[in-house]
Amino acid sequence: MAKSDVNSWQAVQAEVLRRIHARIWAPGEMIPNEQALAEEFGCARATVNRALQSLSEAGLLERRRKAGTRVALHPVRKATLDIPVLRYEIEGQGAVYGYTAVQIAEHAPPEEVRSAMQAGAGHRFLHVKSVQTADGAPFVFEDRWINLTTVPEAAKTDFEAISANEWLVRHARFTHGQISFAAVNADAEVAAHLALRQGAAIFVISRITWDGGQAITHVQQFFHEGYRMQTEL
Amino acid sequence: MAKSDVNSWQAVQAEVLRRIHARIWAPGEMIPNEQALAEEFGCARATVNRALQSLSEAGLLERRRKAGTRVALHPVRKATLDIPVLRYEIEGQGAVYGYTAVQIAEHAPPEEVRSAMQAGAGHRFLHVKSVQTADGAPFVFEDRWINLTTVPEAAKTDFEAISANEWLVRHARFTHGQISFAAVNADAEVAAHLALRQGAAIFVISRITWDGGQAITHVQQFFHEGYRMQTEL
């Protein structure tokens, strides 16, 4: 390997990966310490640290303070998914994006939604149902609750004109969230909005996003039949 | 912030995130350069670089060589998924793991599978269908093709005794792969193996893994009804 610069941790990572894949360093085996690797590779110890950290985050190494670093016995592969604003996903495919609000109403959510959002008894909610289309065909039906107590500006927003998906990304940056992926049979409402038969298998993304301790929104997105979410390992 | 050490890029990242969320640095706006931030935070420029790199990978910043760093206008949120060996996922839930091979046969795959695996005409394939159970209940039905030309040791392996999922992780480390997630209605075979009604909405993970230019395996995993894959944002 060439002498290191600030970006060469990727080169260290590639060499460590090669040794793991070639089983030069076998599953469960200790690897040399950072200082020894830095000397071998002729780079800064911080560069080795960055590379090992990255491989540890990817589940390929197990690092223990003081005990050193081992090749993982049971590697957990991690996949990274992009969660884009739907308009950019649709337009990125070269399709014409469309948006229609089918219901906008201020009312109380079902208890399971309120509880998942850890919302207080006095909190107000906006319920927005909408359909987003690609070249005129339904792409996703969205059933969303927005906590107006957390995001009061949402009460003054025209969700006939802009999707809550896009508005929230622009106006209510979140600190963290939970996301889950599942399959459901389309019920009558989902089938009607996606223009497909009841019972069709639908890919659903459910998400709650938070601004610190306050939930911003709870959303279920029901994708058109055949939707596939893809990524690299 | 305290004076930096090799691990304090996380502290820099937290402060940059805070400024983005508080809109001190608004979407689309240039942020100060690395040297200026390093001086402000009293840390090494490499530490700032590491923090900005991480936020850029997460889609919150846009970095251009020479042009500098902006807050992303259209942040793409990234979610990281763990893809564990199923046995560890099941046992990790405190359930008893079970495995049954329902078909093990060497024969040619359908053209779409061969083509997706970029396999040569002379390549040999093992077709393994199996069911993995949690506390006796079907958890996943797996339909897998293994390229024996790439992984010849698989021909001598007893897949009645160990799942291909687990054996491959131990014996055929891969360099990269493609993974996708979708929903399908259970056909007669899937319904029978998962002990559910035909037409039930099933979450499917499809995966092809590679060792460099050679495909190792092509697998579809059909999960039990109601399966939910979850992660944090």
UniProtKB/TrEMBL annotation, chains A, B:
Database matches in PROSITE patterns: HTH_GNTR
Keyword Transport: no
CDD domains xref list: WHTH_GntR (cd07377)
A single MF term (Gene Ontology): DNA-binding transcription factor activity
Extent of the signal sequence: none
Taxonomic superkingdom: Bacteria
HTH gntR-type domain span: 6-74
Protein's UniProt keywords contain Transcription: yes
InterPro entries: Bact_HTH_transcr_reg, Chorismate_lyase_/UTRA_dom_sf, Tscrpt_reg_HTH_GntR, UTRA, WH-like_DNA-bd_sf, WH_DNA-bd_sf
Protein name as it appears in the record: UTRA domain-containing protein
